[in-house]
Amino acid sequence: MDSINQNQTEENHQNLDNEPAIKKIKELTGIAKTCFLCTNPSAGESNGTRPMNVQEVDEQGTLWFLVANDSHTYQDISADPSVKLYFQGSPHSDFLFLEGTAILSADKARINELWNPIMKTWFTEGEDDPRIALIRVSPETGYYWDNKHGNVIAGIKMAIGAAIGKTLDDSIEGDITV
């Protein structure tokens, strides 16, 4: 069991909490920008999984999204605020999974802070569209998979490892607790 990690000569596991966890969340969400936000479906038409664009990750590690208040996402979170977020920043690294609690809000000042004109595609009345709401996700736990030295070094180590038949993986992974 776990033969890949057992063949690894380098340390590749590091759990993160508090400030290092928040720093990693900000780093990986900044690369990925979009995630699958998963809820417990409350309506027949919702499968509970949809792509969402992160508008901001604040200094406490809280993730902010904009959502329509007449959407299945809003309805699902109203019924059960437990959410899971899945991020993929690149094909071989920058992976992040978070579990947390979502809070819905209609705070106009915060909506205005997060507003971007491209959002008019979904909120056709602009930043004053009465359907705009906020999702504030406070992550509690999670897991990350990344590389230690960037994608170029990781790619070189993978190529050399494949050529010589030895695990030279540059990965790092671990639990995240905020």
Write a compact overview of the structure shown:
This protein is 27% helix and 34% strand. The chain is built from five helices and nine strands.
Low-confidence stretches: none
Q: What is the 3D form?
A: elongated
Strand element count: 9
- Helical stretch tally: 5
Mean pLDDT: 89
What can be said about the biggest beta sheet?
9 strands, mixed
User: What is the SS-derived class?
Assistant: alpha+beta
**Oligomer status:** single chain
Radius of gyration from the CA trace? 19 Å
Strand proportion, as a percent range, falls in: 25-35%
Which percent bin holds the helix content?
25-40%
Report the order of strands and helices.
HEHEEEEHEEHEHE
From the N-terminal CA to the C-terminal CA, the straight-line distance is 29 Å
Comma- or semicolon-separated keywords:
178 residues, alpha+beta, nine-stranded mixed beta sheet, 5 helices, 34% strand
SSE topology sketch:
Elements: H1 3-6, E1 16-17, H2 18-32, E2 34-38, E3 49-53, E4 56-57, E5 63-68, H3 72-79, E6 82-88, E7 95-105, H4 108-114, E8 132-147, H5 151-164, E9 171-177
Parallel strand pairs: 1-9
Antiparallel strand pairs: 2-3, 2-6, 4-5, 5-8, 6-7, 7-8, 8-9
